[in-house]
Structures are given as structure tokens and as C-alpha cells.
């Protein structure tokens, strides 16, 4: 297993968890595609985290990049500095700037290929009937 981290990222844990729940268990290549086309600034953080984890797995440990899956993806709370906003008529407001940590673990799954995960991989060319005798599959155009 290969671990990759992004520390002290601006953003709330609750918002990052929406992406983390979506990506857990997904192949790294598919997750990179999903985050590449997501319209959010948070998706860039996950994209760079996953790309870094994939590069570490390939270059440092010699793993196959096609069989990498996301084993664990955690979002942790980081420091929250307080900022004083001065308002009109002598008023003030205290704001908390929320930060998060992203931690990703990637592992290699030997029986997984990217095409098989999407459902477009190789399929068997026979159907099994009720009496368990294989019959050639007929494709009608």
C-alpha cells in the first residue's frame, strides 16, 4: 500500500467528504477522470492527491498503474485560525478559517483492469441454458 497526503488545505471537512465517499474503492484511473471533469475547486485537490499517489506507487514501488485502486481515503480536520472582521458602527465578527487534511492509501488489485470496472471489458461468448450446455451467443445487428 502506498500513502499520499495533502496537508492544511483550505476547506471544510464536510464538503471534502462528499468527494471522498464517491471515490472510495474506485480505480485510480477512473477517479482521475471523474475529478478532471468535476466542476469544483475541491476536485483539483483530490486530482493532485490521486496523481501523486499513483506516481509514488509506480516510481517508488514499481506497481502497475492500471491495477491501482483507492483503498482508503480519509479527510481529517486541521487547524482553524480565527480572523477578526471589523464591521461598521464599532461591531466585529470572529470567523473561523477551516482547513483539512487529505490522506489517501492506494493498493494494487491484480484481478482488476480499468475496462472491466467500467463494464466494457471482455465478455464470454456463450450463454448457459437450463440444462447447463453452453450455446453460442447470437448477436443481431
From TrEMBL:
What Gene3D superfamilies does UniProt report for this protein, alphabetically?
Ribosomal protein L22/L17 (3.90.470.10)
Q: Which GO terms describe its biological process?
A: translation
Q: Which Pfam families did the record assign? A: Ribosomal_L22
Provide the protein name.
Ribosomal protein L22
What is the source species? Reticulomyxa filosa
Alphabetically, the GO molecular function entries are: structural constituent of ribosome
UniProt lists the family membership as follows: Belongs to the universal ribosomal protein uL22 family.
Which Gene Ontology cellular component terms are annotated? mitochondrial large ribosomal subunit
Write out the entry's keywords from A to Z. Ribonucleoprotein, Ribosomal protein
| InterPro entries, alphabetized | Ribosomal_uL22, Ribosomal_uL22_bac/org-type, Ribosomal_uL22_sf
Lyase keyword on record = no
Top-level division of the source organism's lineage: Eukaryota
